Amino acid sequence: MVVIHYTAMTTARAAADTLCNPETEVSAHYLIAEDGEVVSLVPEALRAWHAGAGAWGGVTDVNSRSIGIELANTGFTPFAATQIDALTDLLNGIKARWDIRPERVIGHSDMAPGRKIDPGGRFDWRRLALEGLSVWPSLVAGAPSLEEGPRGADDARFGAAMAAFGYTATDDPALLLQSFRLRFRPGAKGPLDATDLAMITDLARRFPVDVNAAWA
């Protein structure tokens, strides 16, 4: 898979110094500067230390199963168009070389809910999906809505769909919702609603993390 990050540092040079310093024990395969310069730091076939603790579906050692891409960004500013153009070019090459499915391009926050928030709410996941480099939910007729029922029933349905899509199961419904919205509904507020449930149900049906499993 591919994991996308932001550096949370003021410059690409500062990020490169950190990523190339053995004492920091952190690395990534690529660093993309604000101006679109792509710096290759670790060969794609080798393991980099970019993901840390977390999981996606059944993959618990994400570092050994992924290519890490760092985007030079503080986390508080928009991503430059030239930087995202460079990212899409890079992803197209990686996808072709490794036959990576669009749903296997994820954010650091997806595989480490609550521990990481990058690439953050300003990152344009929808653009990647439109270019076939990631996925985006579609709201369709007949999508599920919130129902009257036992307390926590809708949270359970949401959690089950999140796990089917790839997110790590947790007993904290609020954390799951926060992680989902960070990527798919960054402006949404309040408790779980019918739109959240419809969106994740669609993703779980079309892009289950276990391609051999059916999602009802």
Summarize this structure as a short list of keywords or feature phrases.
single chain; 216 residues; alpha/beta; Lysozyme-like; 2 domains; five-stranded mixed sheet; 5 strands
Task: Please give the structural blueprint.
Layout: E1 2-6, H1 12-19, E2 30-32, E3 38-40, E4 67-71, H2 81-98, E5 105-107, H3 108-111, H4 125-130, H5 153-165, H6 173-184, H7 194-206
Parallel strand pairs: 1-4, 1-5, 2-4
Antiparallel strand pairs: 2-3
Helix pairs in contact: 5-6, 5-7
The name of the CATH topology of the largest domain is: Lysozyme-like
Contiguous low-pLDDT stretches (5 residues minimum) are none
Gross morphology:
globular
Please trace the helix and strand order, writing H or E for each element: EHEEEHEHHHHH
Residue share in helix: 25-40%
For the termini, the CA-CA separation is 25 Å
CATH superfamily of the largest domain: Peptidoglycan recognition protein-like
Mean pLDDT, to the nearest integer, reads: 92
Determine the structural class based on helices, strands and strand pairing: alpha/beta
Number of strands: 5
